[in-house]
Structure formats: structure tokens, C-alpha cells
Design a protein that fits this description.
It is a single chain. This protein starts with a helix and ends with a helix. The chain is built from eleven helices and 23 strands. It has two domains: 257 residues, Aminopeptidase, CATH 3.40.630.10; 215 residues, Alpha-Beta Plaits (2-Layer Sandwich). Bound molecules: zinc ion (ZN). The site of zinc ion has 5 residues, from α3.
Length: 478
């Protein structure tokens, strides 16, 4: 059975299919449906829907199962690799039952999900309900395919997403999220000020979805925390630079603070005192942290705008009041994160200080509440404006789900052990399907895929085999 999955996967690997470049895979899917006389629909965006009737049983439309995966992959390659991934096939290698691509990412995320769905549609011997297979585009670049897919085309109320990367685990919820882009105008001017640079480095960083519960510090927050504890000296922020991505916990940052020359020594020793007092707390969470202070006898000599004294105070207050990290764990799964915040980047550029926040929650209303809290804090900063960007919906956890039970019992029957359930604080396209299809039950599964989105991406054939058996067994039982 798995041979057919591997055959479809190899066909997909032979077609370029980076995000934004899925037309050949789309053609392939359409041809697949045409050749088998199946209903298909391809929307303007490039999403493809294929419908197939029940096999070897009489099933009503209500029992339809939606299988879902994404067509696009993340294209990365080694510097020395000469493949043009926008035009050429991947060079697939198989060694000891492990598939990889020479010099490039493999796109098992999510080529293998697409291949498994095709193998189900293709097979006339599997006992199964009617299938609606949805293959979206551009999952990897913001999920715009799923966002624009017309959910009213679907009759199914049970959806199996095939875009997970861990065998033996069924994912049953994901976070929704959004970014907030903030701009604060700089109204102060540099003049004859002394300066002190504060630099934080050596933190672990990590993904703001997958690593947020690990209690890691944000370098931005360490700086605002220390500066916020100085309350009797006027400060002006002349430079601030921390973080490159909103979805990464900031691992290093620095700021340059201007101060009246007469206050410089006092400020320097105050900062040292605060740093030394707080250091024990920091190092408990981040073993490799260093917090360095730097200054010289020279006055600050760069001309331009800075964050004025009042705005500096307001900015520090707001950033220290806005939570960083986990805001709340889930009530019905206390081991999983419900709501979180990441202060991703702070940058002074031209006449502005810019901040990016990344908010996530597995409950959309909780994310809105957090947004309101942030907006209240930001409204205290003079001249501050902000915009919400790229929101995507959550897939909410439900304590009981017959579909999940079916998949778990199929797993147990096949492999003699319990399947683990998981909720992810990352985003999945399931959020769009969960919010777009009324009363739809969802699960997400997949075989073991290692090092996704990298040139080392690889997948085990045995794991594909077990995952496909699980899918087949589940469909049989539904
Ligand atoms: Zn994926």
C-alpha cells in the first residue's frame, strides 16, 4: 500500500513547488482527478479540491471525511548546491529506509501528506467513506491558501489534516495569532549628552510558538527591565536594536541611553547595582546570559532624533507592563499553553522607534483580550500608533471528540500502544477549517519528519508506512 504513497511523493518531488510556485503540482492534482473521473475544482488561488465517493460501502454524504494537506514546500539549499528549485526536480536519495534530497530541503512537509491523500483517493480496495481532499497553497508563507479557500464547497464535518511531523501523536488544537506593529515618533534631539550602552547577549532564543513555555528570557525585556528600575534620573533612548523576527524570542539586544553629563556616573553605578541585584534571577533562567555596560569619556556624537525623556519613561512602562512569554496555560489541559505574547523586535530607525509583538492563543477571544491590554498600554505612550497584521484563527481544543477517539483506538489496535494527544501553540491551517466549517471535528497526524525547513529534512519509509496504515484503518472505522 505504501508503495503508492511513495510513488505519488516521488512524482511531487519531481515538480518544483516552493510557496508561490505550485502551478505544476496543481496541474498534477487536476490530471490525477481527470484520469480517474473524479470531481475536482481548482480555485483562483491554486487550491485544489478533489471529491471521491465511498468505496465498498454505502455511505451518506454526511459521513464524508475531509483529508487536507498543503501543496507548497519551503525551499532551502546548501550553498554549493546547483539546483534551481524554482524550475528543477529535487534529487531524491534513499538510504537505509530514509528519504532525503541531495543538497536541498525535501518537502516531505507536506508532500507526504498530499501523497497519502492521493493514495487513499486512488485505491479501490480500501473500505472507506466519501472523501473530500483539499490541497491548499502557500501554507508556509502565511496560510493564505487556506484563508481564501471557499469552505462552503465542503460537505464533510470530519477533517484529517496530514501536516504533522510526529508519529504516534494526534494533534487536537492549535493557537491562532496576530502581529502588532507599533510606531513611536522620536521627538527629542541629541545635544551634548553623555551616553551608556547596555547590551544583553547569550540567551537561548527559540520559536515563540514552540518554545514559549520554556521560561526563556527575552533580551529586549531584560534591557527594559533594568532601565525601568532607574527612577530618579532622566533618560533618553538614542538607539535600540533587538530581535529580527516577531516569532522568535529575542536572544540579544542593545540600547544606547543618553543622560546629562552631570548624571552619568550616578546612572552608571545605578545600572551596575540593578544589574548585579537582578543577575541571580536572570541566570537561573539563562545560564549563558551576559549583561554588559559600556561608556566612554566622550559625549554622544551622532546627530539626530532620540526618544524624549517623557516618552522614554512611557515606553519603558508599557514594555514592562505588557507580558512577555506565557500569559495563561489551558484550563482543560494545564500542560499546554493557552495564550502567550512575544515582544519580537524593537528597533530605532530614522525618526521612529518600531516594535513588533506576536500574540498567540488557542482561544480567539483571549487573544482579543490580550490585544486590548496591549493597546491600553500603548495608548499611554505619546504619539504612538499601531496596526494589527496577519491574524489567523485558532483551532480550539474540545475535551471530547469521536473522531479523535476513532484515530486513537485504530492506533492501539494496529500498534498495541496508546496514541498521544497534543495541542500546538504554533499555527496550523486547521484554524481556518475549524472556524470556516460549522461543527467540524478535526485531527492532525503525520509520520516522523526530521529537520523540516532545512537541507537536512528527512523522512523514514517505515514511519510513512505506519502512518498510512493508521489513516486507512481510521477511514475504515469511521
Ligand atoms: Zn507543513
Amino acid at each position: 500500500m505504501t508503495d503508492r504513497v511513495l510513488m505519488f511523493f516521488k512524482d511531487i518531488c519531481a515538480l518544483p513547488h516552493g510557496s508561490g510556485n505550485c502551478s505544476l503540482v496543481g496541474d498534477y492534482l487536476v490530471d490525477f482527478a481527470k484520469n480517474r473521473g473524479l470531481y475536482y475544482f481548482r480555485d483562483k488561488k491554486g487550491n485544489v479540491l478533489i471529491k471521491a465517493p465511498a468505496v465498498l460501502r454505502d455511505d451518506s454524504e454526511e459521513n464524508t471525511v475531509i483529508l487536507q494537506g498543503h501543496q507548497d514546500m519551503v525551499c532551502v539549499k546548501e550553498e554549493s548546491c546547483d539546483i534551481d528549485m524554482s524550475k528543477e526536480p529535487l534529487r531524491i536519495e534513499v538510504e537505509n529506509g530514509i528519504i532525503s534530497a541531495k543538497g536541498t530541503s525535501l518537502g516531505a512537509d507536506d508532500g507526504i501528506g498530499v501523497a497519502m491523500a492521493l493514495a487513499v483517493l486512488d485505491n479501490k480496495e480500501l473500505v472507506r467513506p466519501p472523501i473530500e481532499a483539499v490541497f491548499t497553497v502557500d501554507e508556509e508563507t502565511g496560510m493564505s491558501g487556506a484563508a481564501e479557500f471557499d469552505m462552503s464547497l465542503l460537505k464533510g464535518r470530519k477533517l484529517i489534516n496530514l501536516d504533522s511531523e510526529e508519529e504516534g501523536v494526534v494533534t487536537c488544537a492549535c493557537a491562532g495569532g496576530e502581529r502588532i506593529d507599533v510606531r513611536i515618533p522620536l521627538s527629542g534631539r541629541t545635544s551634548d549628552y553623555a551616553w551608556i550602552k547596555i547590551e544583553v547577549s547569550g540567551l537561548q532564543g527559540g520559536h515563540s510558538g514552540c518554545d514559549i513555555h520554556k521560561g526563556r528570557l527575552s533580551a529586549i525585556r531584560v534591557i527594559t527591565d533594568i532601565l525601568g528600575k532607574v527612577n530618579d534620573i532622566d533618560l533618553r533612548i538614542a538607539q535600540f536594536s533587538g530581535g529580527r523576527f516577531d516569532n522568535v524570542i529575542c536572544s540579544q539586544a542593545y540600547a544606547v541611553i543618553l543622560v546629562n553629563p552631570g548624571d552619568k556616573e550616578k546612572l552608571y553605578s545605578k545600572l551596575l547595582e540593578i544589574r548585579d541585584r537582578e543577575f541571580l534571577g536572570y541566570i537561573r533562567k539563562e545560564k549563558m546570559i551576559s549583561v554588559d555596560l559600556l561608556s566612554s569619556g566622550q559625549l554622544y556624537d551622532k546627530k539626530g532624533f532620540v526618544l524624549g525623556t517623557e516618552e522614554t519613561k512611557q515606553f519603558l512602562n508599557a514594555l514592562n507592563n505588557i507580558p512577555q512569554g506565557v500569559v495563561r496555560m489551558m484550563g482543560d489541559r494545564p500542560e499546554s499553553v493557552e495564550t502567550s505574547m512575544n515582544i519580537g523586535t524593537v528597533e530605532i530607525f530614522g525618526n521612529e522607534l518600531k516594535i513588533t509583538f506576536s500574540l498567540r492563543s488557542s482561544i480567539d477571544e483571549k487573544r482579543k483580550e490580550l490585544r486590548e491590554e496591549v493597546s491600553k498600554e500603548l495608548s499611554m505612550i505619546k504619539g504612538c500608533t499601531y496596526k494589527i497584521r496577519d491574524p489567523y484563527p485558532a483551532w480550539k481544543y474540545v475535551p471530547s471528540s469521536p473522531l479523535r477517539d476513532t484515530i486513537c483506538s485504530s492506533y492501539k489496535e494496529l500498534f498495541g500502544k496508546e496514541m498521544n494527544t497534543a495541542v500546538t501553540h504554533g499555527g496550523l491551517e486547521c484554524g481556518y477549517f475549524a472556524s470556516g466549517i460549522k461543527d467540524c471535528e478535526l485531527v492532525s497526524i503525520g509520520p516522523d519528519i526530521d529537520d523540516i525547513h532545512s537541507v537536512k529534512e528527512k523522512i523514514s519509509i517505515d514511519s510513512i508506512d505506519r502512518c498510512f496504515k493508521l489513516l486507512v484503518k481510521t477511514l475504515e472505522k469511521i
